[in-house]
Specification:
By secondary structure, the protein is mostly helical. It has one domain (3-161, 170-263). Helix content is 71%, strand content 0%. It has 14 helices and no strands. It has helices at residues 3-21, 42-54, 57-70, 97-107, 115-130, 134-155, 172-190, 194-216, 222-235, 238-263, 267-278, 280-311, 317-331, 335-347. Helix 10 runs antiparallel to helix 11 (267-278) and helix 11 packs antiparallel against helix 12. The chain is globular. It starts with a helix and ends in a 5-residue tail after the last helix.
Protein backbone atom coordinates (compact mmCIF):
# COMPACT_ATOMS: atom_id res chain seq x y z
CA UNK A 1 0.00 0.00 0.00
CA UNK A 2 1.29 3.42 -0.86
CA UNK A 3 2.68 5.89 1.68
CA UNK A 4 -0.39 8.13 1.49
CA UNK A 5 -2.64 5.22 2.36
CA UNK A 6 -0.48 4.33 5.34
CA UNK A 7 -0.60 7.91 6.61
CA UNK A 8 -4.37 7.98 6.33
CA UNK A 9 -4.56 4.62 8.06
CA UNK A 10 -2.63 6.08 10.99
CA UNK A 11 -4.88 9.12 11.09
CA UNK A 12 -7.88 6.81 10.93
CA UNK A 13 -6.63 4.92 14.01
CA UNK A 14 -6.24 8.20 15.89
CA UNK A 15 -9.78 9.20 14.89
CA UNK A 16 -11.11 5.87 16.17
CA UNK A 17 -9.40 6.50 19.49
CA UNK A 18 -11.28 9.75 19.87
CA UNK A 19 -14.57 8.18 19.05
CA UNK A 20 -13.83 5.49 21.62
CA UNK A 21 -12.47 7.43 24.59
CA UNK A 22 -13.36 11.07 23.91
CA UNK A 23 -11.17 13.92 25.11
CA UNK A 24 -7.47 13.15 25.42
CA UNK A 25 -4.29 15.16 25.08
CA UNK A 26 -1.09 14.36 23.26
CA UNK A 27 0.54 13.55 26.59
CA UNK A 28 4.16 13.16 27.52
CA UNK A 29 5.08 11.36 24.28
CA UNK A 30 4.94 14.67 22.41
CA UNK A 31 6.12 16.97 25.17
CA UNK A 32 9.24 18.19 23.37
CA UNK A 33 7.96 17.95 19.80
CA UNK A 34 6.85 20.70 17.48
CA UNK A 35 3.13 21.47 17.39
CA UNK A 36 1.43 18.29 16.14
CA UNK A 37 1.13 17.75 12.42
CA UNK A 38 -1.33 15.67 10.46
CA UNK A 39 0.61 12.60 11.51
CA UNK A 40 0.66 13.60 15.17
CA UNK A 41 -1.60 14.76 17.92
CA UNK A 42 -3.26 17.84 16.53
CA UNK A 43 -5.87 15.47 15.26
CA UNK A 44 -6.21 14.38 18.85
CA UNK A 45 -6.95 17.87 20.11
CA UNK A 46 -9.29 18.42 17.18
CA UNK A 47 -11.47 15.40 17.78
CA UNK A 48 -11.44 16.14 21.50
CA UNK A 49 -13.51 19.22 20.75
CA UNK A 50 -15.53 17.44 18.10
CA UNK A 51 -16.54 14.78 20.61
CA UNK A 52 -17.89 17.38 23.01
CA UNK A 53 -19.81 19.09 20.22
CA UNK A 54 -21.39 15.85 19.08
CA UNK A 55 -22.59 15.12 22.60
CA UNK A 56 -25.03 18.05 22.30
CA UNK A 57 -27.36 17.46 19.32
CA UNK A 58 -28.65 21.04 19.02
CA UNK A 59 -25.15 22.47 19.10
CA UNK A 60 -23.92 19.86 16.64
CA UNK A 61 -26.62 20.90 14.15
CA UNK A 62 -25.62 24.56 14.45
CA UNK A 63 -21.94 23.79 13.85
CA UNK A 64 -22.75 21.46 10.96
CA UNK A 65 -24.90 24.16 9.39
CA UNK A 66 -22.03 26.62 9.70
CA UNK A 67 -19.70 24.10 8.05
CA UNK A 68 -22.06 23.79 5.11
CA UNK A 69 -22.18 27.56 4.71
CA UNK A 70 -18.40 27.78 4.83
CA UNK A 71 -17.92 25.23 2.05
CA UNK A 72 -16.58 21.69 1.83
CA UNK A 73 -13.81 20.53 4.13
CA UNK A 74 -10.56 18.98 2.83
CA UNK A 75 -10.83 15.30 2.00
CA UNK A 76 -8.96 14.12 5.12
CA UNK A 77 -11.63 15.74 7.32
CA UNK A 78 -14.44 14.02 5.46
CA UNK A 79 -17.23 12.89 7.78
CA UNK A 80 -16.14 15.08 10.70
CA UNK A 81 -17.50 18.30 12.18
CA UNK A 82 -15.26 21.27 13.10
CA UNK A 83 -15.03 21.93 16.84
CA UNK A 84 -17.16 24.68 18.33
CA UNK A 85 -15.56 28.05 19.02
CA UNK A 86 -16.69 29.00 22.56
CA UNK A 87 -17.90 32.43 23.57
CA UNK A 88 -18.27 33.99 27.01
CA UNK A 89 -21.97 34.72 26.69
CA UNK A 90 -21.34 38.38 25.85
CA UNK A 91 -20.17 37.99 22.27
CA UNK A 92 -16.47 37.64 23.05
CA UNK A 93 -14.22 34.63 22.53
CA UNK A 94 -13.85 32.51 25.66
CA UNK A 95 -10.25 31.96 26.70
CA UNK A 96 -10.23 28.17 26.83
CA UNK A 97 -8.26 25.31 25.32
CA UNK A 98 -11.21 24.67 22.97
CA UNK A 99 -10.02 27.59 20.81
CA UNK A 100 -6.71 25.83 20.16
CA UNK A 101 -8.62 22.61 19.49
CA UNK A 102 -10.52 24.44 16.75
CA UNK A 103 -7.29 25.61 15.09
CA UNK A 104 -5.52 22.26 15.52
CA UNK A 105 -8.43 20.53 13.82
CA UNK A 106 -7.69 22.45 10.61
CA UNK A 107 -3.92 22.23 11.06
CA UNK A 108 -4.19 18.47 10.51
CA UNK A 109 -4.55 19.38 6.81
CA UNK A 110 -1.35 21.44 6.59
CA UNK A 111 0.40 18.73 4.53
CA UNK A 112 -2.64 18.40 2.27
CA UNK A 113 -3.39 22.00 1.28
CA UNK A 114 -1.33 25.17 0.89
CA UNK A 115 -0.80 27.62 3.74
CA UNK A 116 -2.88 30.24 1.94
CA UNK A 117 -5.75 27.78 1.40
CA UNK A 118 -5.56 26.69 5.04
CA UNK A 119 -5.68 30.31 6.22
CA UNK A 120 -8.69 31.05 4.04
CA UNK A 121 -10.43 27.89 5.25
CA UNK A 122 -9.96 28.79 8.92
CA UNK A 123 -11.20 32.33 8.35
CA UNK A 124 -14.32 31.07 6.55
CA UNK A 125 -15.05 28.62 9.35
CA UNK A 126 -14.60 31.35 11.98
CA UNK A 127 -17.05 33.56 10.09
CA UNK A 128 -19.51 30.67 9.73
CA UNK A 129 -19.64 30.24 13.51
CA UNK A 130 -19.12 33.76 14.83
CA UNK A 131 -20.19 36.20 12.13
CA UNK A 132 -21.63 39.43 13.51
CA UNK A 133 -20.10 39.32 17.00
CA UNK A 134 -16.74 40.58 18.34
CA UNK A 135 -15.52 37.01 18.85
CA UNK A 136 -15.04 36.66 15.08
CA UNK A 137 -12.31 39.31 14.90
CA UNK A 138 -10.83 38.04 18.15
CA UNK A 139 -10.58 34.51 16.77
CA UNK A 140 -8.81 35.74 13.63
CA UNK A 141 -6.31 37.64 15.78
CA UNK A 142 -5.61 34.58 17.94
CA UNK A 143 -5.21 32.47 14.79
CA UNK A 144 -2.60 34.92 13.50
CA UNK A 145 -0.75 34.88 16.82
CA UNK A 146 -0.83 31.09 16.92
CA UNK A 147 0.72 30.94 13.44
CA UNK A 148 3.44 33.38 14.53
CA UNK A 149 4.11 31.20 17.57
CA UNK A 150 4.32 28.01 15.49
CA UNK A 151 6.68 29.66 12.99
CA UNK A 152 8.92 30.92 15.79
CA UNK A 153 8.88 27.51 17.48
CA UNK A 154 10.18 25.95 14.28
CA UNK A 155 13.22 28.23 14.54
CA UNK A 156 14.21 26.94 17.96
CA UNK A 157 17.05 24.39 17.93
CA UNK A 158 16.05 20.76 18.20
CA UNK A 159 16.81 19.14 21.54
CA UNK A 160 18.81 16.01 20.83
CA UNK A 161 19.95 13.19 23.14
CA UNK A 162 23.51 13.22 24.43
CA UNK A 163 25.82 11.97 21.64
CA UNK A 164 26.97 8.41 22.03
CA UNK A 165 25.48 5.00 21.90
CA UNK A 166 21.88 4.37 20.96
CA UNK A 167 19.59 4.82 23.94
CA UNK A 168 21.94 7.26 25.68
CA UNK A 169 20.40 9.34 28.43
CA UNK A 170 19.14 12.75 27.32
CA UNK A 171 20.88 15.95 28.37
CA UNK A 172 18.50 17.09 31.10
CA UNK A 173 19.91 20.60 31.18
CA UNK A 174 19.32 20.90 27.42
CA UNK A 175 15.77 19.69 27.91
CA UNK A 176 15.27 22.28 30.64
CA UNK A 177 16.56 25.01 28.33
CA UNK A 178 14.20 23.87 25.59
CA UNK A 179 11.21 23.99 27.94
CA UNK A 180 12.17 27.45 29.17
CA UNK A 181 12.51 28.70 25.59
CA UNK A 182 9.09 27.33 24.67
CA UNK A 183 7.51 28.91 27.72
CA UNK A 184 9.14 32.27 26.99
CA UNK A 185 7.99 32.11 23.38
CA UNK A 186 4.43 31.38 24.42
CA UNK A 187 4.39 34.24 26.91
CA UNK A 188 5.79 36.70 24.38
CA UNK A 189 3.70 35.77 21.34
CA UNK A 190 0.49 34.35 22.80
CA UNK A 191 0.14 36.69 25.79
CA UNK A 192 -3.07 36.03 27.70
CA UNK A 193 -3.74 33.04 25.47
CA UNK A 194 -0.56 31.23 26.51
CA UNK A 195 -2.03 29.57 29.56
CA UNK A 196 -5.30 28.43 27.93
CA UNK A 197 -3.38 27.03 24.95
CA UNK A 198 -0.33 25.50 26.61
CA UNK A 199 -0.66 25.74 30.39
CA UNK A 200 -1.55 22.12 31.18
CA UNK A 201 1.00 20.72 28.74
CA UNK A 202 3.75 22.99 30.04
CA UNK A 203 3.05 21.85 33.60
CA UNK A 204 3.18 18.24 32.47
CA UNK A 205 6.45 18.73 30.60
CA UNK A 206 8.13 20.27 33.63
CA UNK A 207 6.80 17.48 35.83
CA UNK A 208 8.09 14.87 33.40
CA UNK A 209 11.50 16.50 33.43
CA UNK A 210 11.51 16.51 37.23
CA UNK A 211 10.71 12.79 37.15
CA UNK A 212 13.60 12.22 34.76
CA UNK A 213 15.95 14.03 37.13
CA UNK A 214 14.79 11.90 40.05
CA UNK A 215 15.08 8.67 38.06
CA UNK A 216 18.62 9.50 36.92
CA UNK A 217 19.88 10.57 40.36
CA UNK A 218 22.22 7.78 41.42
CA UNK A 219 22.52 9.15 44.94
CA UNK A 220 18.89 8.30 45.76
CA UNK A 221 17.71 4.91 46.93
CA UNK A 222 14.70 3.23 45.37
CA UNK A 223 12.59 4.20 48.38
CA UNK A 224 13.73 7.82 48.20
CA UNK A 225 12.91 7.98 44.49
CA UNK A 226 9.46 6.50 45.11
CA UNK A 227 8.80 9.09 47.82
CA UNK A 228 9.82 11.96 45.54
CA UNK A 229 7.70 10.60 42.69
CA UNK A 230 4.73 10.43 45.03
CA UNK A 231 5.33 14.00 46.21
CA UNK A 232 5.46 15.21 42.60
CA UNK A 233 2.18 13.49 41.78
CA UNK A 234 0.51 14.84 44.90
CA UNK A 235 1.50 18.40 43.95
CA UNK A 236 -0.08 18.18 40.50
CA UNK A 237 -3.28 20.14 39.96
CA UNK A 238 -6.38 17.97 39.42
CA UNK A 239 -6.59 18.85 35.72
CA UNK A 240 -3.02 17.65 35.16
CA UNK A 241 -3.68 14.37 36.93
CA UNK A 242 -6.77 13.98 34.78
CA UNK A 243 -4.67 14.67 31.67
CA UNK A 244 -2.25 11.92 32.67
CA UNK A 245 -5.13 9.49 33.06
CA UNK A 246 -6.57 10.49 29.69
CA UNK A 247 -3.16 9.99 28.08
CA UNK A 248 -3.02 6.51 29.62
CA UNK A 249 -6.49 5.74 28.25
CA UNK A 250 -5.47 7.07 24.86
CA UNK A 251 -2.44 4.79 24.71
CA UNK A 252 -4.50 1.82 25.82
CA UNK A 253 -7.03 2.62 23.11
CA UNK A 254 -4.35 2.95 20.44
CA UNK A 255 -2.85 -0.36 21.52
CA UNK A 256 -6.22 -2.11 21.49
CA UNK A 257 -7.27 -0.75 18.10
CA UNK A 258 -3.84 -1.27 16.58
CA UNK A 259 -3.77 -4.86 17.79
CA UNK A 260 -7.26 -5.52 16.43
CA UNK A 261 -6.36 -4.04 13.04
CA UNK A 262 -3.04 -5.90 12.93
CA UNK A 263 -4.78 -9.21 13.48
CA UNK A 264 -7.01 -8.47 10.49
CA UNK A 265 -9.87 -10.51 11.83
CA UNK A 266 -13.60 -10.05 11.64
CA UNK A 267 -15.50 -7.10 13.06
CA UNK A 268 -16.67 -9.36 15.87
CA UNK A 269 -13.04 -10.10 16.72
CA UNK A 270 -12.26 -6.38 16.69
CA UNK A 271 -15.25 -5.72 18.92
CA UNK A 272 -14.09 -8.36 21.40
CA UNK A 273 -10.51 -7.05 21.42
CA UNK A 274 -11.53 -3.45 22.05
CA UNK A 275 -14.24 -4.37 24.57
CA UNK A 276 -11.57 -5.90 26.81
CA UNK A 277 -9.79 -2.56 27.09
CA UNK A 278 -12.40 0.14 26.49
CA UNK A 279 -15.76 -1.46 27.20
CA UNK A 280 -18.72 -2.43 24.98
CA UNK A 281 -19.99 1.06 24.16
CA UNK A 282 -16.63 2.27 22.89
CA UNK A 283 -16.17 -0.96 20.95
CA UNK A 284 -19.54 -0.50 19.28
CA UNK A 285 -18.65 3.03 18.16
CA UNK A 286 -15.33 1.87 16.74
CA UNK A 287 -16.96 -1.03 14.90
CA UNK A 288 -19.62 1.24 13.42
CA UNK A 289 -16.98 3.60 12.08
CA UNK A 290 -14.98 0.67 10.74
CA UNK A 291 -18.06 -0.66 8.97
CA UNK A 292 -18.72 2.72 7.38
CA UNK A 293 -15.11 3.01 6.24
CA UNK A 294 -15.08 -0.54 4.89
CA UNK A 295 -18.22 0.23 2.86
CA UNK A 296 -16.63 3.39 1.48
CA UNK A 297 -13.42 1.58 0.57
CA UNK A 298 -15.42 -1.12 -1.23
CA UNK A 299 -17.20 1.57 -3.23
CA UNK A 300 -13.88 3.20 -4.05
CA UNK A 301 -12.49 -0.15 -5.22
CA UNK A 302 -15.45 -0.59 -7.60
CA UNK A 303 -14.97 2.95 -8.86
CA UNK A 304 -11.22 2.36 -9.38
CA UNK A 305 -11.90 -0.76 -11.44
CA UNK A 306 -14.22 1.14 -13.78
CA UNK A 307 -11.83 4.06 -13.92
CA UNK A 308 -9.08 1.69 -15.01
CA UNK A 309 -11.24 0.69 -17.98
CA UNK A 310 -11.43 4.36 -19.00
CA UNK A 311 -7.65 4.66 -18.69
CA UNK A 312 -7.19 1.72 -21.06
CA UNK A 313 -9.13 3.46 -23.83
CA UNK A 314 -6.27 5.87 -24.53
CA UNK A 315 -8.67 8.81 -24.91
CA UNK A 316 -7.60 12.43 -25.40
CA UNK A 317 -6.89 13.97 -21.95
CA UNK A 318 -9.90 16.29 -21.96
CA UNK A 319 -12.33 13.52 -22.94
CA UNK A 320 -10.79 11.12 -20.46
CA UNK A 321 -10.99 13.65 -17.60
CA UNK A 322 -14.63 14.33 -18.40
CA UNK A 323 -15.49 10.63 -18.29
CA UNK A 324 -13.62 10.12 -15.03
CA UNK A 325 -15.39 13.11 -13.46
CA UNK A 326 -18.76 11.73 -14.56
CA UNK A 327 -17.90 8.29 -13.17
CA UNK A 328 -16.83 9.83 -9.86
CA UNK A 329 -20.12 11.70 -9.59
CA UNK A 330 -22.02 8.46 -10.19
CA UNK A 331 -20.21 6.66 -7.37
CA UNK A 332 -19.87 9.57 -4.96
CA UNK A 333 -22.91 11.86 -4.92
CA UNK A 334 -21.72 13.54 -1.73
CA UNK A 335 -19.21 16.29 -2.68
CA UNK A 336 -16.92 15.48 0.25
CA UNK A 337 -16.87 11.81 -0.80
CA UNK A 338 -15.97 12.87 -4.34
CA UNK A 339 -13.15 15.06 -2.98
CA UNK A 340 -11.85 12.18 -0.92
CA UNK A 341 -11.90 9.88 -3.96
CA UNK A 342 -10.10 12.48 -6.08
CA UNK A 343 -7.48 12.92 -3.35
CA UNK A 344 -6.92 9.16 -3.23
CA UNK A 345 -6.60 9.11 -7.01
CA UNK A 346 -3.85 11.70 -6.85
CA UNK A 347 -2.13 9.89 -4.00
CA UNK A 348 -2.20 6.65 -5.96
CA UNK A 349 -0.53 8.32 -8.91
CA UNK A 350 -3.60 8.74 -11.13
CA UNK A 351 -4.16 11.88 -13.13
CA UNK A 352 -7.21 14.15 -12.72
Amino acid sequence: MRRLDRQRGSARSQWLVFVAVGAVSAGAALWLNRPPSARDASALHAVNATSSVQSTPALSKDVAAGTSMAGALPASLDGSTPPHLPTDGHGHLARTRAVRDFFDYFLTTQNEISAATLDALVRRQIAAQLDGIPAADEAVTVWQRYNEYRAALDQLPQTAPTPGQSGARPDLDALQLSLDQRDALGTRLMGEWNKPFFGVESQQRHTDLARLRIASDGSLSAAQKAARFAALDAALPPETRAAHERARQQQAALDAIGQAQKQGGSLDAMRAQITQTLGPEAAQRVVQMQQADDAWQARYADYSNQRAQIDKQDLPPQQRDAQVAQLRQQFFTNPSDAMRAASLDRGNGSAN
